[in-house]
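Dear colleague,

As promised, here are the two records you asked about, laid out in our usual form so they can be pasted straight into your sheet.

NAME FIELD: protein one
SEQUENCE, THEN STRUCTURE:
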Amino acid sequence: MPLPKIRKISLRSIACAAALSLCAGLGSVSAFAQSRDFAETSMAKDTRIFELRTYIAAPGKLDRLHKRFRDHTQALFVKHGMTPVAFWAPVDQPNTMIYVLAFPSIEAKDKAWAAFGKDPEWVKVRSESEPDGSLVAKIDRMFMKAADYSYLK
């Protein structure tokens, strides 16, 4: 019997799996709001959600983006009720940063992002760190909820 073809796994899939594996040991970390792609029976009875974000930095600005996260953004996330889970710098996709945030619920996510966006400290930090234009060229995001067989349940 021939072996099945091996499917190439995307960096996003690996990051997602890594984030969920990492979160397995973090009892206070949130899991994601109900996904339309899963039947209710396969989802954990947890309202927590995760947000996976992938940033493509503007050319030549990745180091400044990491600095802003390291020195300011991460603390502001916590201030507004977001739980930073992990941050990655992909080795095979330069100019890319990936991170995962956790929230108690989809409503908490919406409230936290709204407050973060209006925070005077964030507005100042963003403005000061982008004198020559945005540090980010593209943002992709995905919201996830733990499956019932996940270690997160």
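NAME FIELD: protein two
SEQUENCE, THEN STRUCTURE:
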Amino acid sequence: MKKIGLFYAPANGATERIAQMISEKLGEENVEMVLITESTELKDILEYKKLIFGVPTIKVDDLNEGDEKTGWDYLIPKLDHRRFDKTIGAIFGLGNSVDYPENFVDSMGTLARMLVAGSMKLVGKCSTEGYEFTNSAGVINETFVGLPIDEDNEAEKTDGRVDEWLEKIRSNFKL
């Protein structure tokens, strides 16, 4: 069985911790974790037909506004207008619903729209129930496009939310 490609950035923070948690829960033998860097190419992603993406708190399209670039700054332009036929994907996103309730997990929505436009089948949508926020580009048709995680304010809920989400996507990934 071909492994699931779990692409994430940045390193050394909550996004990487959650990526590692997901890898362990799915079985490390089933997942290839890939830290997105400046050298990550589209061909690296296209090697997989099953993908999980981990995005940080900040909107993906705003990542290059800071002084420090992450892998998403380099990868997003490579994903735009690309085809992902016969590829299944899922997204988890970090957010802070207290300090940034008006754009909670926006990065999930930015990435999801790009992937769906390229014909990727996205799985793992989550209800907005149980989350407090005012607005999110990560919500489409009143549902999160992936798994929202708030490690800053609701870290105690993360493990249960990850378990519930993985149950939703396991069958799509044939695990």
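A couple of things worth noting about protein two: The mean pLDDT is 90. The longest strand covers residues 88-94.

Best,
R.
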